[in-house]
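Bumping with the actual sequence this time:
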Amino acid sequence: MAIKLSSAFSVHPGIWLRDEVVEPNKLKVVDLARHIGISRQALSSLLNGKAGLTADMAIRFEKAFGLKADTLCRMQASYAMANARAHESDIKVTRFLEAA
């Protein structure tokens, strides 16, 4: 039996980074973006939950703050799965049965 977790347990990694890293350290988005080598717009989109976290971005945060990139990527995967599960009833696919 599979355990179903509520989507409430999934947090967008960008929003988590904003709330737990960027804001507590009083970092300016433009300064952080410059430091980690990305555009201000790309960082802003991530921190506002409008863009997903890429593996490349996760490594940049790992290098800048010591966070584990693997953990950040798992957060993204969990968030994406929770969003997909929220509308899985809209996905009309039946089980594939191989012809005998």
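The tokens above came from a reply further down the thread. Residues 10-90 form a domain with the 434 Repressor (Amino-terminal Domain) fold (CATH 1.10.260.40).
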